[in-house]
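In this supplementary section we document a worked example of the pipeline. Step one takes a protein sequence of length 568 as its only input; no multiple sequence alignment statistics are reported here. Step two produces a three-dimensional model, which step three serialises into structure tokens for compact storage. The input and output of this example are shown verbatim.
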Amino acid sequence: MPQPNSSLTDSEPSAVDGAEATALAAIDALLAPFARSDAPGLVIGIARHGRLLYRRAAGMASLEMGVALTPATRMRIASTSKHFTAMAVLLLAEDGLLDVEDPVHKHLPEMPRLSANGPTLRHLLAHTSGWRGHDELWAIAHGLTFTQPGPGLPAMARQGELNFEPGTHMVYSNGGYHLLAKIVERVSKQGFNDFLQARLFGPLGMPDTFSVATDLDVVPGLAGLYMPAPGGGWQRGVYPCELDGGGSLVSTVDDMLRWQAHMRAEKKTVGSAESWALLSAPTTLSSGSQVHYGFGLARHPYRGVDIVHHAGAVLGATSQMLSVPAHGLDIIVMVNGAPVAPSPLALKVVELLLGDALEAPEVRPLASDFSALVGQHYHAPSTGSVLGFADVAGKLAMSWQASPAQPLHQGDGKLWLGLQDLPVNDLVLDAADIDARGDRTAAPDTLVLHEGGLPRRFERLAEPAPDAAALADALCGDYASSDLDATARMALVDGTLLLTVQGRHGQHVCALTPLSADVMTLTSNDPVLARMGKSVLNVERKAGRVVGLRLDTLRTRNIHLARQESRA
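The serialised model returned by step three reads:
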């Protein structure tokens, strides 16, 4: 692997006009708090119509060695990698070696046929396949225990059911893109990184971009990945699973800006214009509803201008790639642990540089206007899904599947949940369903949430919730899951119900918080996993006796834990 390329002929920012100079000075001010010698940082690049405007780094690449970040530092871009994987698949389709309508098992025959409707490669590309992701399956059973590449594909092949019928919903899946990487390898008869180098990075002049499967691999010039340590200071971020396909790329500001410029260019060096357009074309679900996500990229309006974007996050690294095609504006933000969210930062850059070209900011619904909803939880008996409402900085926020609450978007009589503060998800509430009662001082007993265009009836969970100790006799005992290839034990410890899942290579302990006698949230005892959100547990009963549990996370549905009979 070559050393980082730090002598690019087009790497220095061009001359700017007065308005741009003012905006860039404001961006300097945004980065100033991260210009530290004792903390990780970020790198940012901005170009306009292919003209480099801004290329800066702040903070440290290596805390151990005292090495500062530079604009030439290689950084993990995490899930921003996905549309590169999609482009690799589309190149093979152009070669006539596959078709996006092919069923997955045509190229991966070890995968079970769980639906008459596929899943197809198109479903994988658009996150509509229903496949559970290997990384979530691993974390549920093993926590953050590290594994070398290998278990991902068998874990997905072991699944006995899908999250949902293919094409009916969009649920983000790293595992789906992991399958796509394996398909690229089998069809091309090349390693995943080798194919990307030969067909994408080499022809486009991206010498510092690679696919790096695990965080144990040594890459020259790659920034360290850092996370806040529980007792203060920093610790290394190490993703526990293989990243190929869904989040494995390492790149630099210069390479990413070249890539974005090529995406917008009319004349393509690699691939057809039709293939590039598919990356961000909206996806139509089986209900006829559309989501603003294509093959690895989202495209939708933001303050009156269309933006094309994708963000990424692994342990110790985050990123945001964003383009405004009509204005030729390209932005890349890469972070190796600094306490800054790259998505809002990229949007702030858009606002600073485009200014008067933007419409007024979106008005988010106020929590005070829906005060009766704040603190309430709702449950869908048909699916086991849970949603809740909270006040986040004065805005009405919704938690989906016990994930951290995010402020809702509002418009056209609808309330909907966005993705990373951008409206690309398919979870929509009809505001009239709340307002029609004519009394916002009382929480409605039922709500209808449209998920992928399909209505789901949610019932308010009564308060107060039962005490955990009162449920212990019914719930405590041993369970097993073939989907996880793991066993589990529920026990009451110091007044808290704990679920310990034991995989073949590690374990994961979670604390239960009852919302009702049959619906609970799970909080990981691992502080890193706990920050990522909670899970939902639904209790299965037969003739009044607990016979099993159904576990749901934000991206995994209906993991079955069957109760094991005591042999005492």
